[in-house]
Amino acid sequence: MDYDILIIGSGPAGQHAAWQAARMGKRAAIIERKPKIGGAGLQTGTIPSKAMREVAYLLSRSGGMRSALAPDSRSRHGLLADAVRRKEGVIAQQESVILQRLLKHGVALIPGEASFIDEHTLQVTDASGNTRKITARVILLAAGSRPRRPANIPFDKKTVLDSTSILNLRHLPESLLVVGGGVIACEFVSIFAALGVQVSVVDSHKQLLTYLSEDVVGVLADSFLGMGVDFYMEERVAEITREDHGVLTKLASGREFRTDAVLFAQGREPNTAGMKVEQAGIALDEGWVTVNAQFQTNVPHIYAVGDLIGRPALASTGMEQGRSAVMHAFGSSGQQFAENLPMAVYTIPEISYVGKTEKEVQQDKTPYVVGRAYFKDSARGQINGDAHGVLKLVVDARTEKLLGVHIVGEQASELVHIGQLVMNLNGTVRDLISNVFNYPTLAECYKLAALDCTHQLERRNKA
């Protein structure tokens, strides 16, 4: 065999798989079809959108006053230019870091598009059309996903956009219609509303981010309303038409919108087309790769991780999946995959959570209590001016263990890791009370929420 492991895709999942294999002394190579490494995580998704969001966030914190950020007052298009520059700077720096790390670990980088010849052999076709055959003991699929682009939506990368093409805008539209109410849609609503664009949202569901707690999403929705966002929930798009000076969107209800641009953000599709996985006998489920708990496909030496296998389709989980899959492939009895994985939505304000929602706990028929702490009641929250942030704990009334942590507000994506660690170490709500947090910090809210929980537990025991 040419290599111990061949990895298709250089995104977060592929990178961490390669590093893990190299640390185990294995001959590892990454095959990447794009001209730049990093996958959607670095080039077209996670990192660029968060870099742009940071500029929008700073603007929102300044109360929309550009002069608070720079001495000269620039146009709204200048704000987008700031965001794009920040995005491109972060991408370039991270690309260099990733490349150096891969080379340092001795991971080979093979440019080209990979397709299966048989279950141990890949054909790689480079940009010039040259082909070569490469074999490996283990093959790991980490080719990621792309925005779903239905044939009836007239995408043009200028006025009818997906989550990739919207990152390349050079001029802010005056108005933007966002179709979708999921993570990607909400993140772009935050960015463009904070940059002064008139944003409208159309979604078929009753609430945004339907899998999250209603009270947490309610705080986000209130923030959006405060930025002038209009919502049209439980509505479906019937037709989108490009016009000379914008886009006409017709809903099934008969309502019509004329906006400068439309962002269609309803789901993603796996990048399995072109890999000829049938040549290796790999089973698919509507294009997604089916795997077991060890991330093996139905062909035991072929693994799949990251977006290719569906939810949660996050960079953080993909990284851990890649590492875990490689350890299993080469017989390592390493650390088990973490049970409770954090999720974050980089909206303004951020939302982050780990564990179960109240609704899920109710379905399990587990007796529970809920404790809340409001950022406005903490000294740091008052200093930051975060009047709406909330930290919510869902606690088992019998064992006092944390079942879920849900946070909306500044630094939610950072704060959630405290609760995650307590959950993964089988801690209880009283561990949070006995811990000492720096003062003043938002982390103090864990203690305030925990005290709220124990107060309710005591009342429950007396009843």
Question: What is the element layout, followed by pairings?
Answer:
Elements (H helix, E strand, L loop, with lengths): L2 E6 L3 H12 L4 E5 L6 H5 L2 H16 L14 H29 L3 E4 L1 E6 L2 E5 L5 E11 L3 E3 L12 E2 L13 E5 L3 H12 L3 E6 L10 H13 L3 E4 L3 E7 L2 E6 L4 E4 L1 E4 L3 E3 L13 E2 L2 E2 L12 E3 L10 H15 L13 E3 L5 E5 L2 H6 L4 E7 L4 H6 L5 E7 L5 E7 L3 H13 L4 H6 L9 H19 L1
Structure report:
The chain has 463 residues and is α/β, with parallel strands linked by helices. It has three domains: 3-146 and 269-329, FAD/NAD(P)-binding domain (3-Layer(bba) Sandwich); 160-266, FAD/NAD(P)-binding domain (3-Layer(bba) Sandwich); 349-462, 2-Layer Sandwich (Enolase-like, domain 1), CATH 3.30.390.30. The protein contains twelve helices and 24 strands. Strands 1, 2, 3, 4, 5, 6 and 19 form a seven-stranded mixed sheet that branches. Helix 5 links the parallel strand 9 and strand 10. The longest helix has 29 residues, at 76-104. The protein is globular.
The 3D shape can be described as globular
Question: What does the main sheet amount to?
Answer: 7 strands, mixed
Structural class per helix/strand content? alpha/beta
Instruction: Pick out the low-confidence regions.
Output: 64-73
In the CATH scheme, the class of the largest domain would be Alpha Beta
What is the CATH superfamily label of the largest domain? FAD/NAD(P)-binding domain
